[in-house]
User: Fold this.
Amino acid sequence: MHQPSKRYIIQLRLYLLVFLFSFNFISSQEISNSFKKKVDSIIHNKPETYIGINSVMGSSKSDTILMKYFSDVAALKKYLSGQCYALNQLGTKYRNISRYNKAIKYHKLALEKADEANNLELKVFSLNMLSVVYRRMDAIKTALDYAQEALELAETEKNPSIGLQRSINISLNGIGNIYQSLKQYDLAIEKFNKSLNSENNLHNRLGLAINNQNVGECYEELNNLDLALNYYRKSLALNEEMDNEMGRIICHNSIAQVYIKQKKNTQAYNILIPTLKKAKKLGDNYLTSIVLINTGWTLMDLQQYEQSEANLFEGVQLASKHKLQGTQAIGYKLLSELYSKKKEYEKSLFYFKESKNIEENLANETNIRYVNDILFKYDTEKKNNQIAILAKENELVRIKLKRNENTILIGALLLSLLALILYILYRQFQLKSEKKLLTLEQSMLRSQMNPHFLFNSLNSIKLYIINNEKKNAVYYLNKFSKLVRKILEASSLKEISLAEELETVELYMNIENIRFSNEIDFEINIEEGLDIHAIKIPSLILQPFLENAIWHGLSSKKDNKSIKIDILKKNDYFNTICITDNGIGRDASEVIKKNKVLKRKSIGIDITKERLENFSKDYQNTFEVKMIDLFDAEKKPIGTKVLITIPTI
Assistant:
């Protein structure tokens, strides 16, 4: 056989080295400066809760390259909680593409880091994630062990944090799923509803969506199809609100499955075809395999046997490759039914036996006995512990009451009376403050969402549509909808980070700039070393100053229009936001305003000043707003500068 020459081998090695170097270079380029700053900010503040880290990470958590970078930097800085978070996100990503061994590896590493950090919340979270992976693999014993350990550990905390409460709900959901896999649907629904009620109190839409989906699955198995469909639609609505693609795929597949059972095969097929494309694009082999099998099922009922066979085989092969035994059993059962309809009885019998073998393997007596024993022991032990604790507490209370009954009674009455008086006084003060704050927020929202701005923005977008400039129309319509959403979200918050506020005003300037044919040169400069994620300000305070600069400073100017925002550190106690425009100046603007027939009354700045004054009550220092007229060497107006001083403590 002809052997490759040494020269060929050397060239091949060189190409490989170049490829590896290029890959590493591309990977390093993918870590943007903004993400590096985000990581630096998290490591500087070192939040120890899942929610604290997740609120800053946002959508970056689904990017494996970014999470590996975060994990490496956190390890270098000995920030164990951050490293645990990143490792769990990597595990979740690999779980969702059915790479279960790799997912388990990352979740176990995360569990080790949570142990090292002595972080109860992240330890419980890591145990729950391991339970989910093993449940996907139909390893019921191991899944239950991890879910049970997570629940027992979480319930040792008397005053659990929000993150820990969510982890308890995940554990309950996991145990419910195990009951469901054992066909004990009433017990499963009980666990799901318990988790559902808690998630509702926490206003956690993702938890609500997952539990509604699970309850629907139980009712579907109990053949209550209308009730199942109702729960699936609730889950779908929540996933639509969150823009959760995976959740949408799961719900659409479940709704289609109910339609198949209701003999609405055309409706089911119309849902499944686009859902299958989305599942494949998402890369989740678990979802793709079950959507393929359901597509084969509905095609079989539509008597399109060849296409049905192709889809069923593809789904079964995918399930077999990734060891999804439950899905594989369903596929074999449907193949048996298909071949029976095609009168190929030998094949039908073969696949029927294959389906039964897998089902027996998944639901053998040992599994059922093990799970029931563990759950029974846990429930019994938990109840006994609760009874023992209550008995001790009752005994202590009885002894104390016997010794100090009169003293306690009189003291309690006096304290109650004093507390009631103080509460009434405090509540009156609080109601007045809340009323004032609510009035300011309503006025502020009306100022931000004034009809002139909305009408002009929509008219500008409409002009792009009329001129058939589709890309511009879609681009600015996206910007406009995002701005409106941000304004509505921010209006309900007392304070937001400066980073979020700057993002909102940048959207606002993009929209306003349409009507000026993008003539306004807008830029934001941030002094090096300032962490704008850590600076807190009242929501929506900058837009009124920008609006004022545009309408009174730049709208009457012909060309060379610019607005600049500078974020500066004044000293250890204050930061400064400087808004500078090169408009016609306040004096000239006032003259033009007086000559106008229709006078535009601007109340936004006055409201903003009042809001800043109210907000500063929580700080030792106060906010300050200054407006400075700018002149050139010949004393001619060349614009206006607004200085907003923000206290840090």
